[in-house]
Write a structure and sequence with these properties.
- By secondary structure, this protein is of the alpha/beta class.
- It has 2 domains: 2-102 and 166-221, Alpha-Beta Complex (2-enoyl-CoA Hydratase, Chain A, domain 1); 223-254, no CATH class.
- Helix content is 43%, strand content 14%.
- The protein has helices spanning 16-28, 46-62, 79-84, 111-117, 141-166, 187-193, 202-210, 224-232, 235-248, and strands at 2-5, 34-41, 67-77, 89-92, 97-99, 184-186, 198-199.
- Strands 1, 2, 3, 4, 5, 6 and 7 form a 7-stranded mixed sheet that branches.
- β1 (2-5), α1 (16-28) and β2 form a beta-alpha-beta unit.
- The radius of gyration is 21 Å and the shape is elongated.
- The two termini are 20 Å apart.
- The relative contact order is 0.15.
């Protein structure tokens, strides 16, 4: 078992290097019969999710006799589902939330507020569109269209991954029109749509699907000093922890 908990991003516990390290160890053990990815995540970075997706696909080729099962706990949305799509089969609880196949980017605009309170924005750039995401500058229609195109292309990448991973299991017809709209469904609905293969917990998948009683957790855990420094908020201690992690762990994607 390897867990994916929380937002999938480079600076959080659920980052691609940590998840991939656990996956490689789980696959490499000669006694492991299958690999189970337990996901509880609202999503996050498409880049980090893409790294994990690609690593799962690579490991499946390297170890063809070991199947990968994704099990969604409370939430497997957006980037969380992106990762799950790489598995041979996906399971969830009947009340799990599954889907949210879409891309989002948001910010605020403060231009009118600045005018009202008399603040002048002084922003110097080299490049016509270098500041197009600046919330303190007016939004331009040309730049808005450009950014929408970026999001649309990323969305199509997400859709391609889901279609490749789920294949013929994805629902056809009218129900598929909303499948990639960013909506989210519970486990029972996701099963009807073909987003998952069955209803069940990690224990159920281990016992009934893999036929293995023992679940070994290969999730990479923070060291004791990292836990301590995170709780105390000590910058010096955090620096020591990062140095120890660098010296003692291999978090390189290959």
């Amino acid at each position: 078992m390897v867990t994916v908990n929380g937002i999938i991003t480079a600076d959080q516990d659920a980052n691609a290097n940590v998840i991939a390290t656990g996956l490689r160890a789980a696959f490499a053990n000669e006694f492991s019969r299958a690999v189970m990815l337990v996901i509880n995540s609202p999503g996050g970075s498409p880049v980090q999710a893409g790294y994990v997706y690609d690593e799962i696909k690579r490991l499946r080729v390297l170890y063809p006799d070991k199947k990968v099962y994704a099990v969604i706990a409370e939430l497997g949305a957006s980037g969380g589902y992106y990762i799950a799509a790489a598995a041979d089969q996906i399971y969830a609880d009947k009340a799990s939330l599954v889907g949210s196949i879409g891309v989002t980017a948001s910010s605020f605009g403060f231009v009118e507020l600045m005018d009202k309170i008399g603040i002048e924005r002084r922003h110097f750039t080299s490049g016509e569109h270098k500041a197009f995401l600046d919330p303190f500058s007016p939004s331009k229609e040309k730049e808005r269209k450009f950014w929408q195109e970026v999001l649309d292309v990323t969305h199509q990448q997400f859709i391609k991954v889901v279609r490749e991973g789920r294949g013929e299991r994805i629902a056809k017809g009218e129900s598929s029109s909303e499948l990639y709209s960013g909506l989210i469904w519970n486990g029972e609905q996701a099963l009807q749509l073909g987003l998952i293969d069955g209803l069940g917990s990690p224990g159920f998948v281990a016992r009934e699907i893999v036929k293995a009683e023992n679940i070994i957790d290969y999730s990479v855990k923070p060291s004791a000093i990292e836990v301590l420094t995170n709780k105390l908020g000590l910058s010096i201690g955090a620096g020591i922890a990062n140095q120890l992690k660098t010296e003692n762990s291999d978090f390189q994607l290959r």
